[in-house]
Amino acid sequence: MFIDASVLAAMMTDENDAREFATRMQADTVRMTSPSTVAQAAIHVAAMLDLSFIDAGDAIRTFLTLVNIQLLATPPRAAFLALEAYECFGKGRHPADLDLDDCMAYACARYYRQPLLAKGDRFGHTDIDMA
């Protein structure tokens, strides 16, 4: 499964649905995310927990190791998959209302042929398989 920044941030800040995400992650042995997803999650975690961006990034790096989430390179093709996603599901164009970060997560999940684990229902309005 490809893990979105919303899930990483929810788990790192112990949001109400953090345990549900942990349970869903346990069901899949393939867990991955991307550098831009980690950066986005770290920015959110830093704001929520009043940490520096570097400290939040270090905490997420440790978390990825502990729960066995691979940090994979964003493939060049993802740029074009993200543009296609934005064309179909982007803000102001579709009920999914995806922003660029959402489209990149969508693109990486699509490229790696993995279901997407994300918070909320915005991706449920797309054609991506959900974890």
Automatic annotation (TrEMBL):
Residue span(s) of domain PIN: 1-127
EC supergroup of this enzyme: hydrolase
Keywords tagged on the record: Hydrolase
CDD domains: PIN_MtVapC28-VapC30-like (cd09871)
EC number annotated for this UniProt entry: 3.1.-.-
Pfam family, one: PIN
Superkingdom, natural source: Bacteria
Listed GO MF terms: hydrolase activity
Protein name: Ribonuclease VapC
Species this protein is from: Rhizobium paranaense
